[in-house]
Design brief:
about 240 residues; ten-stranded antiparallel sheet; globular
Length: about 240
């Protein structure tokens, strides 16, 4: 997997062979720790990743993304670093003057290679009053509703919208309790497809949950809202 800089956006090409390469490297790193235990224990935690977009082929995120995007190569377009995204979200919350939902902060996109149309999986985040409240982020029209470990997620063929409470520490504690963090994942790669079934929507719901969990972890949400593995439960139509 290689990275380049382009117009402020880091592009990372992913191929179906890259997982094996990373697995070999991971095995070597693990072997080094086994041989030199004293040097691999008792250390400070490793620095957090520069971005929240890269997904290892062995991860749950990659498994869901592969089923959504297909088996071919794709590029990861990084719109915000971890620090950039969390700083933007905290700034938006701190400076929020009205009851309206905030403009989403772009995190990343996953773009299939060798395609002529700008279809992709896009991930972004912001703050919103609770559903139904004045100024709340609009619902996904005609979407199925899901409850995943307490998180409300709306999913249709081309979008997932997740809302969850994220209690932040320090001076942002009070304002964070007045709003919900929302994750907005769009699936324009599904436009014109006619084979999106319930299983596909469940995968999209799972992917939205897993990517939002990365953000709640990076923000340091004290209530740890998405700590458990996702269990998707469809809700009755209101």
């Amino acid at each position: 997997m290689a990275g380049t800089k382009m117009d402020g956006m880091r592009l990372v090409r992913i191929s179906s062979r890259s997982g094996a390469d990373r697995a070999v490297k991971g095995s070597i790193a693990a072997l080094v720790c086994v041989v030199a235990v004293s040097s691999c224990s008792g250390q400070s935690p490793a620095p957090r990743a520069d971005d929240l977009c890269s997904v290892a082929e062995s991860s749950d995120e990659a498994a869901a993304l592969r089923q959504i995007i297909g088996s071919g190569d794709y590029e990861t377009q990084v719109d915000s670093t971890t620090d950039g995204l969390t700083s933007r979200l905290k700034k938006d919350l701190r400076e929020r003057k009205t009851d309206d939902w905030t403009t989403p902060a772009d995190m990343c996109s996953y773009v299939p290679a060798n395609q002529s149309k700008p279809h992709r999986v896009r991930v972004e985040f912001g703050w919103t009053p609770p559903a139904g409240a004045q100024g709340a982020r609009p619902a996904v029209k005609d979407a199925g509703r899901y409850e995943v470990n307490g998180a409300l997620i709306e999913t249709d063929d081309i979008a997932s919208l997740l809302r969850i409470r994220c209690d932040l520490p320090g001076g942002l504690g009070a304002p964070s309790k007045q709003v919900l963090l929302y994750g907005d994942v769009s699936y324009s790669i599904n436009i014109s497809r006619t084979d999106i079934d319930q299983a596909a929507r469940d995968r999209q719901t799972t992917f939205a949950y897993l990517m939002t969990r990365r953000v709640t972890d990076a923000l340091g949400c004290e209530n740890k809202p998405l700590e458990k593995p996702p269990v998707v439960k469809p809700l009755p139509t209101p």
